[in-house]
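Entry:
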Amino acid sequence: MGDSFSWTAGGSGSWDIAGNWLDLTTLATAEAAPGATDTATIDGPDTGAAITVGGPASVAGLTVNFAVDLAGDLAVDELTMAQPPSSFTPGTTTSDVTLSGSLVASSVSIGSLYLVPGFSSQIVNDGTVAVPSGAALTAGTVAVSAGALQEAGGALDIDGILTLGSLLISIRAPVVRLTSGVLDVLNHAHARLDGLNIMDGSVSLDATSTLEIGNAGNAAAGTITIDQGAALFTISPLRSIGTVSIAGPVLNNGTMSVLTASDLSDVMNNGSIEFDGTTFSDSVNDGSITADGGTLSTINGTGRIGVAGSVTIGQGVGNTVDLQAAGAELTVALGAGTPIDTSHTPPVSGFVSGNSIILQGVTADSVHYTPTTTGIGTLTLDSAGSPVASLALLGTYAGDQFALSTDSRGSTVTLPCFAAGTRILTRRGEVKVEHLDVGDEVATLMGRDFRPVRWVGHRTVQIAGHPRAHEVLPVQIAANAFGAGRPRRPLLLSPDHAVFADGVLIPIKYLVNHSTIAQVKVRSISYWHVELDAHDVMLAEGLPAESYLDTGDRACFANGGVVAALHPSFASLAWEAGGCAPLVVTGCVVARVRRQLQRRASILRRQPVARDSSPGKSAVAPSR
């Protein structure tokens, strides 16, 4: 390890003159200038005027806390700019480095952010590295924590990742601080990076310059180009903070991940984009976009848009929209004056139970599906018998399989089972669910002591041919899992069947603990639904579980009165006024019940429930 030196020339000077340096080991004027194994610090004179340090030079580490023109060629392992001063006095310092020759560095760190101990105030030390025409910066990695990397006509080549912005979290304060980094590529400049990660900041490129992420070497001037196999990420360690601005056309042949507040536009996508920003518009998508949030509009091309969270589709989207997650929520918002119909909206695929489609500004009182050709049809919303909105829906559905609700947002469309052998308590004792008849009186907990059976639905699901098997595989509840005799023997329910616990109804899939409650594998399963004269809580094998609430999903059952759905899912998060108790899927109540179940499982000292692959299993299905 070499020695440490500090610049003491009081102004400009040459690097290789020993008299310009203080040896920090001897605290005397250096006998030789810093060399390849040494570290050096450049602080400016008290006058505040910029200085020039002439090279060439080679040094292990260089810290710059002032405005410096590094003239000549410089090789450095670590270039660090605008670091915290030795005394923590609140204030702001700036260091600027302008390159006149070439700088080769293993790593470059520009700017810093820290908190004054004992205070919530922050100190931001900005830094700027300018690479003008004729200069070059070659580095392994570059971090612009606070400040800018300005390439104005020069050349930038980074073999690693360029990171813009930084985050500081103080537990003692406690505070969170975020700083912004800037990358400007201007005036016939050429920039090549292995990767770009933006926590907070901006990227700009003018029409005369190139910015390429990757190594293909075919970037066009004026377009931010992401090569196949390369990636641009915009994500903060704290996802909810940070803003990103990317100015200039983007050609993506690789991967983009935009997960901070940002407005993305003018993108030609041939690769893949993960988006959870603010808006994404005016682009061509011939690849794939997976959106977890934000608003997408005016996006065309041959690709597809996947919806994994809560996403809004505006005007001008021509890509097919795929609902890719069980809880995906798609809002169609075209604005005043534009009808929501098949000519103005993209086709939607992957609509399953647990998803919802919200048609903003639409007031409807009924919904139905009409197949047009194999695997595609039209979902139509009516008001007083007249159509008010329509969507093209890809898939196989029954005409009245859908449930509809209307609120201040507009109209929401959703898709809404016990297993044969499950014993239900009735006035004549416990009766297997498949032996219940219309008119039998079932013991209930929420209203009267007994309620008459109005309808019993059933359907056998072949798991092997089901496209979403995890949504229909039964959940097995061990005997006494909820308490003594609750249930009295192992009980199979469909994943979305709600049990009554702690005053609320909770779908059993949210209570799986892989011990006393676990999903089991079967080849086939027969689900049964029991509808009473009003929604209520029944006793299935002694466990309080809900009865059927009709939300328009009778098509899922073989005896529902219409052609049964090919792959029924028996799930719905629609909950209308007919529910006998609140339906809860998250929050403190669910957490409390899960803790109680876990303590109970410890008491029972049970192993994880065995997976049963035997055929012909039956179960009670969710009651909606």
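The longest helix spans residues 588-604.
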